[in-house]
Write a structure and sequence with these properties.
Layout: H1 15-40, H2 46-57, E1 62-64, H3 65-72, H4 76-88, E2 92-97, E3 100-108, H5 110-130, H6 137-152, H7 159-171
Antiparallel strand pairs: 1-3, 2-3
Helix pairs in contact: 1-5, 2-5, 3-4
């Protein structure tokens, strides 16, 4: 966490900060683009895969639109539009959320499960090729440590907080 005193004239990033920021941006764009291209060859987008892989891990393969949007860092309206396209392709179904009259549940379909099952080997191969196999054990630990620090600061989506909310949501379900 930065402890530097900032003034109106010192708001520019220093050389190390700018270099790290630009490297981070290049890395995330490059890795996500290559993995997204591999997924596209399976007929799924990166967002499709994210929704489907989350649903398959959830009890009853169901999640609220609210929790899924938070996990993805998307607005509910953006995810709702994407969910409509996924629903038209038979990958998911939407159902009313009994706990929130304005919300809806996203439910994995057999077609969605089959699409996820077919895409997963190619996705994992691509993650290894463009990410995991390029890093050693120390790099992986460092990346996890850095990600945890950024998430804890509130500057990135906090997956543990989203998971905690999901657990609370499930606890209140009938």
């Amino acid at each position: 966490m930065s402890t530097k005193n900032r003034t109106a004239t010192s708001d520019w990033l220093d050389g190390d900060e700018e270099g790290a920021w630009r490297a981070f941006r290049r890395m995330t764009v490059g890795v996500r683009t290559r993995i997204g291209q591999a997924l596209a060859a399976t007929g799924l987008s990166e967002a499709d895969y994210e929704v489907l892989s989350t649903l398959v891990e959830r009890p009853d393969t169901t999640s609220t639109l609210y929790l899924q949007a938070a996990k993805m860092g998307w607005s509910r309206s953006r995810l709702s539009r994407h969910a409509s396209r996924m629903e038209a392709r038979g990958l998911i179904e939407r159902a009313p959320d009994p706990a929130d009259g304005r919300g809806c549940l996203l439910v994995l379909t057999r077609t969605g499960r089959d699409a996820l099952r077919a895409a997963t080997p190619r996705h994992l191969e691509s993650v290894r090729q463009h990410f995991a196999d390029l890093l050693d054990a120390d790099d992986l630990r460092d990346l996890q440590r850095i990600a945890a620090k950024l998430c804890a600061s509130g500057s990135a989506a906090s997956q543990p907080e989203i998971d905690r909310q999901a657990g609370d949501d499930e606890a209140g379900a009938p």
